[in-house]
Amino acid sequence: MEGSPVSPGFTLRAVTAADLPTLLPWLRPGAARTLPLAEPTTAATATTATAGDGSAEHWLLVETQGAPRACLRLRRAIGLALPRPWYHVGCVVHAAPALQLQHRQHTLLLGHDHTGASELADIAWQRTGRSLAEQAAALQALVQGAIARIAAQRHQYAATLIVELPGRRDAQGHAPFWHGLGRHFYAGDPEAAAERFGPDWRCHVAALLPRQPVYAAFLSDAAQAAIAQVDDGSRLLLDTLWHAGLRYGHHITVDDGGPVFEAEVDALVGGAAAPPTMGVEGRKSL
Amino acid sequence: MEGSPVSPGFTLRAVTAADLPTLLPWLRPGAARTLPLAEPTTAATATTATAGDGSAEHWLLVETQGAPRACLRLRRAIGLALPRPWYHVGCVVHAAPALQLQHRQHTLLLGHDHTGASELADIAWQRTGRSLAEQAAALQALVQGAIARIAAQRHQYAATLIVELPGRRDAQGHAPFWHGLGRHFYAGDPEAAAERFGPDWRCHVAALLPRQPVYAAFLSDAAQAAIAQVDDGSRLLLDTLWHAGLRYGHHITVDDGGPVFEAEVDALVGGAAAPPTMGVEGRKSL
Amino acid sequence: MLRAARPDDLDALMALAQARAIGISSLPAERAALAEQIAQSQAAFTSDDDASGEERYLFVLQDRRSGRLVGTAGIAAAAGFNDRFYSYRNEFIVQAAPALGARNRIHTLHLCHDLTGVTLLTGFHIDAALADTLAPQLLSRGRLAFIGAQAERFSDRIAAENPGLADDSGRCPFWDAVGQRFFGMAYPEAERLTGGFSPKGWIAELMPQGPIYVPLLPEEAQWSLGQLHPVGDLPFSMLLDEGLDGDTYLNLFDGGPTAEGRVATLKTVRRRRTTPAAPGPEILHIGPPTGGDVPQADEDDTAWCLVDNGRRDGFAALLLPAPEPGMPLLLSDDDIAALGWQDGQPLWAALLDPLHPPVEVDA
Amino acid sequence: MLRAARPDDLDALMALAQARAIGISSLPAERAALAEQIAQSQAAFTSDDDASGEERYLFVLQDRRSGRLVGTAGIAAAAGFNDRFYSYRNEFIVQAAPALGARNRIHTLHLCHDLTGVTLLTGFHIDAALADTLAPQLLSRGRLAFIGAQAERFSDRIAAENPGLADDSGRCPFWDAVGQRFFGMAYPEAERLTGGFSPKGWIAELMPQGPIYVPLLPEEAQWSLGQLHPVGDLPFSMLLDEGLDGDTYLNLFDGGPTAEGRVATLKTVRRRRTTPAAPGPEILHIGPPTGGDVPQADEDDTAWCLVDNGRRDGFAALLLPAPEPGMPLLLSDDDIAALGWQDGQPLWAALLDPLHPPVEVDA
């Protein structure tokens, strides 16, 4: 697949083996590190009607003046082979009118709400030696390039596009959200598990996590404060995605509690912008 | 409060007692039918920091050539005095790899996720004797007028604006969604309860509804098919809201299962369109 | 002797309520409320009405020699009468992630009202000086004999709430970890608001409706689950000995254990059977001054039995030396008067275990 | 007599497995699998190893006169050994909406593995001609006597799954309303996949994890909850009579009742005690040809007792006429041989209730 120009000066193209030495150092621990298989890796018995014509995943980069600046994985439909978990952040109000008491509580409910959505994953970029402006330009070119790629093959992608943003972590790379919640249900080291199993480790660990709604009030203050918060180092990414039209939709990742940004693909690509005829529960039809 | 011009030919103004004979026949059974109190009706002990300077609710209409055409209630922050329930429509995947079985299931979780949001409620319009085009123009003027009103007093409104759309009902006014779910937990007649208690009846009946996630698979086919579906008679409203930028966010009403449309207020009003600095779980700060 | 409380017990009960020496008191400290409770109890013991579940029975333990009241305990016919009676139930969920080679046994607390309608043992209070005698046995097991005798007025299940860990300053690890977060008030305040135990329906509306995941609680709170406040040791241990299960249910407020079981399987109810009786030649009972007619635990090898007259109106129970096999129970004049017994009337007896049992009696 | 299955019982057990006349069979229909099960049982009865919970004991009921096998039943030492054992637990939630004047008692089913590790009674199969004799008592209660005798090899709780409503065509209202929706397959197919009862952990992964709200189920399915398939009537009624609770747990697949209780409270275990025995002057046992040495229910007023030798290796149990009070149990030569008894060895006896009881024996 040959490169295509995106923002002025940037070209989007598929990652090749030759790029790996440049790209791998950019990736977060636990990110996927290998080139996608030529054939869909998903499939299985799932009802993935739209999968089949083309690759389930593309690893793309943008380069300028021949040098890669940022990369991401574009996935057509996630969670089909291995269900991927998120927490939905809900709200319940407990009221005792007789006592004039009313308390609003956040709840976290484990689920697979975004199953079947398309995804931009493992967004990474060159930071060292680049000004913030240069980084922002590269990220914007990358995200817009990926959206353009989706627009060009609209039928291969789902109605919704999501991006998981890195949640808050301390200097040692530990996530207070995990420390306050996940740790109590899986005693192993999450960073080690992520290294070993790659991004799928969250699918595996979900089997150990609470299946009934968890009241956020039972989490430590630090864990509560980290719900849907983006890590400092990803502020630029949040900004880029927000300006591209993606928004937080009250889902977070199960490991570091980072927010999941989402958007209607049609709204992003400026394509078939017509309201749904009657049905609006889009997940049903997938 | 005097009227303000909105779309060409339409004026938005507050409903007065003199308008009631015209407006009341437009309203759905169970809609609020009285003029808002001058003072906030909410308040109570809830942490409604922003409430207090102005009315909690405005009943607005658009008129053209001196004749009212459509009306709605604009509420600043809902669910504070009496928690309002919705179901969040989630998704879980049950997988038994050993059997090569995988099933995607919808779940309904009762909650108060939109507590504190602003709302456009009881949207009603003159249908008799008006062409669809006329109705559409009136609705568009009404919704845009309400959004402009919010923009003009931005600080009085919440970050999110919601609209509950009427769910599917049969010719007798019965909702298959209620028949498949709510009826099993409250034996009374929902229409009679709505007439008697007004819109608050849903807040009362929520105390009887399931508090743990309900698998949609246990509902009748008709009830499942009605999840997040808009009643035929409200197709025009769905269209208007969609074009105004509101979207279904996987919440439905507890009585007829109609979808709740939502939007970021800032995105609608074109106001302070800056990404969140760090925190993105907006409900926290309310 | 154990008998129903009477209006003229008011002063003595006031004194007991204020002493709160050993055990769990559910007696109101206000005189008028206490008088009302006695009246309510008297109606429960004597009314001809069918049982509604609303009855509350109040017993007193009286030293026959001195006439002094030395203990009290109660029964509520149906827990949560007219409303739900909430508890937490301990549950354990095992989840496994084969890919990670991990397996997890998760302790959760489940808000339930399983015990609604169950007969509830309330209060248990005895003069501290009698703690090591058989007097607590009479107070605790005599009340169970009454339930066995009047089974049609009670549920087939009984339960008893027991105080959890809380210090005098009102610090309660369980409350601080759970209730505090949902009530937004300290334990003493909540206790005042609700009158202590047995939270009402509307209170539970404030509590989390789904399971509470215990691993998320602070360690001190986890450790306090099902832990008994020392004041409850004596009554709780006797209920466990009767066969109640103390591991399943917890109090919603302080996390104390709520013992629960079937009436038919209680030791006293199983052992209780009609016994022939006859006037005896003399007064048989010996005992130290403090214990009155209640024998000290380590006094001798006498086998004792709990004797009751099976009545509702006029209920009385005593501890008497167990008769030899095949022999009738011998009653002194004082016993006869206490039991309101006449020759030819039935009596019931249930053998007590020796306090330091050489062998298990009920093999 | 009731005894452990032996390899040479294979043919007779094959015949029983294929007959499936009355009761619940968990015997495999394949000869090799059955032989394996007998071998496994023999190891459980005879091995010197400490109990691991994996043991499965298989009993046969043998007509002493004809030598014919007329029944079989089994025990699994720990339900769900090495994995979770899933059930539904009945729960009732009361919710109220005071503003609407409405109040609701909601029945829910709760996926749980409360019974993991509990000793499980498996299978129960008896020759249809013996249904009205005391033979089923020997088969059912003799197995409980074994558990009482070998308590250290079993859990202190036992449970028994009982078949729910399903017709021969495989229509099962409960499965159709619940399992079908989550498995996407018909009942017979699921049963084949899982080998019948006792769903394994990975199967439960497909089932709803939260409570099932019963009011949402079709009426036929609601009505079938906890309903017993007629083939289970006989064994189930004896377990209820023993004191097991049949109202709390349901089978995950067909909604049949899973009886559950504490070993210590079982009627047979409570009544079972050592009894003096002596060789008798003659063979005492009478009975019709069909019943062999097993008496007919309506035969006479003889009080019968269940006698066992308390052994693991060489376990045997018989029904014998109860001795008069104070008298030893009289044993015929045949009894002595069946029990492997020698003078001076202990025997245990538990009185059976008369089949048409004039009074409650265990008051």
TrEMBL record, chains A, B:
The keyword GTP-binding does not apply. PANTHER family: ARGININE N-SUCCINYLTRANSFERASE, N-SUCCINYLARGININE DIHYDROLASE. This is Arginine N-succinyltransferase. InterPro entries: Acyl_CoA_acyltransferase, Arg_succinylTrfase_AstA/AruG. Keywords: Acyltransferase, Arginine metabolism, Transferase. It holds the Pfam family AstA. The keyword Nucleus does not apply. It comes from Pseudaquabacterium inlustre. It comes from the Bacteria. Its EC number is 2.3.1.109. One of its GO terms (molecular function) is arginine N-succinyltransferase activity. Signal peptide: none annotated. Coiled coil: none annotated.
Automatic annotation (TrEMBL), chains C, D:
Signal peptide: none annotated. InterPro entries: Acyl_CoA_acyltransferase, Arg_succinylTrfase_AstA/AruG. Keywords: Acyltransferase, Arginine metabolism, Transferase. It comes from Pseudaquabacterium inlustre. The lineage of its organism: Bacteria, Pseudomonadati, Pseudomonadota, Betaproteobacteria, Burkholderiales. This is Arginine N-succinyltransferase. Its EC number is 2.3.1.109. Pfam families: AstA. One of its GO terms (molecular function) is arginine N-succinyltransferase activity. It is an enzyme of class 2 (transferase). The keyword Acyltransferase applies. The keyword Transferase applies. It comes from the Bacteria.
